[in-house]
Amino acid sequence: MVNNITAHLQVHNNQIAVEECIRRFRLHFPNTPIYLHGDNGYDFFEFESKFNLKYTHSNLNVSPKGLGDNNWYVYLERILLTCKTFPNEWLLFLEEDVNTLHNNIIFPSADSGGIVGHSFQPNFCTTILTKYPHINPNEIKYNMCGGSIVKMDAMIKSIESIIENTYTTDYLNELDNRITRHGDVLISALLHLNGYSYSEWDGLSETASEIYKPNAVFDHQWKEFYNETDYEKYLDYKNKI
Fold first, then answer.
1. Are 93 and 145 in contact (CB under 8 A)?
2. 60-64: long-range contacts at Cβ-Cβ below 8 A with a sequence spacing of 24 or more?
3. Which of 28, 37, 131, 205 could form a disulfide with 103 if both were Cys (CB 3.0 to 4.6 A apart)?
4. Are the C-beta atoms of residues 218 and 101 closer than 8 Å to each other?
5. At 239, phi and psi to the nearest 5?
6. Helix (H) or strand (E) holding 187
7. Which neighbouring-strand residues pair with 38?
């Protein structure tokens, strides 16, 4: 049984998609700690007992697709709260468009693993290579989307480094102006700034983008229930499976 993962999930309003995401995850990971963060939308408090998880509701919206207004601090505080509440070896980033396929998980050899990586802007790459000249330039990538995974200790130290190194919004924007606006870029950037490695992970696929993996545990961009609002229809679906 897998017992070295904690799942972090921040959600807004997609009630059915969130429920089906967690339901499918629980089929394969029944005892894995989950911290569900409500992001100024639907109140998912009922899911605490329904799925044996921890839930916190916030009236502040900090969407990972458009942080802005220095909300990236709050976004990271929520991740850190998950880590401090449920200490573990690995931290998994769930999203409501992630489908869990099985639990035969093989962890990445790098400190973090996600889907196909995207390039940072040149100034960020230059900064990383100056700080860590041994790093392969082709591995300075980002894409910590839903289904990505990271060593929890690396994530905690990377978040705490913001205070230690007095990283500001202006400084991070000078490195790459997407860092403080998009959650996946932010997470990857902080890991790189602290010398942690990233790799494409065979445990995560994105079949909607024709990115297939033979042993994918999680599939990102799974939108079957993403905009579904008819709960009676959804209950009928669940009753038939």
1. yes
2. 61/12, 62/10, 63/12, 63/39, 64/10, 64/182, 64/183, 64/184
3. 28
4. yes
5. -70, -20
6. helix 183-193
7. 11, 57
**Assigned token pair, 78:** 């929520």
Please list the residues that pair with 220 across neighbouring strands. 98
CATH 3.90.550, applies to 5-240: yes
Contacts of 53 (CB under 8 A, 6+ apart): 22, 33, 34, 35, 36, 47
Tens digit of pLDDT for each residue in 149-196?
999 999 999 999 998 999 999 999 999 999 999 999 999 999 999 999
Tell me the per-residue pLDDT of 72-93, one tens digit each, with 9 for 90 and over: 999 999 999 999 999 999 999 9
Residues 38 and 54 sit within 8 Å (Cβ to Cβ): no
Contact 186, 179 (CB under 8 A): yes
Separation between Cα atoms, residue 109 and residue 93, nearest integer Å:
17
* Domain layout of the chain by residue ranges: 5-240
Say which amino acid occupies 33: P
Give residues with Cβ within 8 angstroms of 56, minimum separation 6.
35, 36, 37, 38, 81
Average pLDDT, the chain: 92
Residue pair 185/145 in contact by the 8 Å Cβ criterion:
no
